[in-house]
Amino acid sequence: MTLGSTQDEHPSVQRQATIGSLALSLVLASSQAFAQQPAPDEPRLEEARAQYRNGVQAFQRGRFGEATVHFERSFRARPHPATLYNAAEARMRAGDTVGALSQLRELLAMTSPAPDADLATRARALAGQMGERDLQPTAPVAVSTPCPTCPTCPEAPSCPPPPPPEVVTSRISGGAWALGGAALVFTAVGAGFLGVAIDNSSTYTDAGANLDLQTRIRDQGETYRTIGIVGLAVGVGAAVGAVWMFTHPQERRVAAPVARLDFGISPGGLSVAGTF
Known about the structure:
By secondary structure, the chain is mostly helical. It has helices spanning 11-28, 33-36, 42-60, 64-77, 81-93, 97-108, 117-129, 174-200, 211-247; strands at residues 166-171, 250-255, 260-266, 269-275. It has two domains: 11-129, Serine Threonine Protein Phosphatase 5, Tetratricopeptide repeat (Alpha Horseshoe), CATH 1.25.40; 166-269. It has a two-stranded antiparallel sheet. A two-stranded antiparallel ribbon has the order 3-4. The longest helix has 37 residues, at 211-247. Strand 3 and strand 4 form a beta hairpin. Helix 1 (11-28) runs antiparallel to helix 5 (81-93).
């Protein structure tokens, strides 16, 4: 049965409640403990008494879940072994034997106030009804050892100072201009020689021209053609190199000037000097 639920007053339940109330009546006399002990907190004592009375009424009516709640509230307000015994019996009759045995063990372990011999005997007898033949008190909670001191973390290394500011300037080297000029010269020379070779080719192919002249011009044309092709190839290569150098200028990094202003006082007056 779930705690806090109410059982119908079935005849068999009434018989159990009657038997339980007989055992309970023997423990009810311990309610005098509320008056026997000093009451440092009168409102809490009244709360414990009221919850105890409500628990007795619920137990006698067979509402064991409700009785368990009231007895446990009374125990929290004013701890006493008799109150805990009644809570354990109500919990057992509500169907929670595991919780009831745990409360009986806690009862035997109480020291302030401690249960008397009669109540301890009743607690073991009640545990026997639930199959626990050798009920032992709950082991005292070990005092937790303090946590070890946390290790001290090493100090973070100091950051190095930032680098001084720099001014980046780009400059096209003189080699780019020279290479560009050389590309123009080689291209023009190669084109010129190749043009002469092509123009002379009509002479040594003419059938009416002198044979020696044709041979000399043919040889000259072959030479001019070779020079022209080589010149054009060198000019194109120089042009490519000049374009690359123009598109990738050289960078120069210099420290940025730091502005500083100095004031001075002299017999002649106030002086101001600085660098920018």
